[in-house]
Amino acid sequence: xxxxxxxxxxxxxxxxxxxxxxxxxxxxxxxxxxxxxxxxxxxxxxxxxxxxxxxxxxxxxxxxxxxxxxxxxxxxxxxxxxxxxxxxxxxxxxxxxxxxxxxxxxxxxxxxxxxxxxxxxxxxxxxxxxxxxxxxxxxxxxxxxxxxxxxxxxxxxxxxxxxxxxxxxxxxxxxxxxxxxxxxxxxxxxxxxxxxxxxxxxxxxxxxxxxxxxxxxxxxxxxxxxxxxxxxxxxxxxxxxxxxxxxxxxxxxxxxxxxxxxxxxxxxxxxxxxx
Length: 275
Prior knowledge:
Elements: H1 2-19, H2 35-48, E1 51-60, E2 63-72, E3 75-81, E4 86-92, E5 95-100, H3 113-123, E6 127-130, H4 135-143, H5 146-153, E7 160-168, E8 171-178, E9 185-189, E10 196-200, E11 206-211, E12 227-229
Parallel strand pairs: 6-12
Antiparallel strand pairs: 1-2, 1-11, 2-3, 3-4, 4-5, 5-6, 7-8, 8-9, 9-10, 10-11
């Protein structure tokens, strides 16, 4: 009786080695639930969170966005970096400010002329207050709205499957894979609150990590001398000591604030949609 049992044990251990399965660890608690149940609990946990830090790379076709944002219900602060420019975002309630280098305000492909170049130099490193009626407001503010970002990050398409475990910033997580990874992947905290810890939108689509859940942080208005009201740059009024910005492209009316909108330099829309 013992010999067959020994052979069975050896066979099971061999199978674990060949498949990479952690056979020595029996799943308990959250790990015993279905992939759909785990994803649902993770989504609910994210919806209840008061704050989060999102950091990583998001790739959309040939565009790459390096995101580092701290978000909470009252607003958000951080940066979105593209090949074209570095954009610093600050939203406090409904007041949205954007600060970027000179490239952010230049026309695409060098278009725009001397006036646009002069304006770009004048506005560099200034916080530009964007009015809610401007088309760029919805696109930019979407990056700073925590619940909008959470909704996008937990979007998994296709049949969900559990695929083992993974350490994310030192925390053990359960791996969820949708449509064999083609529909996205999610890492969910195994212990404590089942927060989403990492999101992979698609193969080769980058990866975003989520951490510092419920850790509050300050949102501070920029100083008046460091701020330019964008409304004065688009209604024909020239701010003191500041040349007007000449739009070089027609702004997109696409209302999405998701990272799939291309943040490239354009003085009219600040961050226009993809051409």
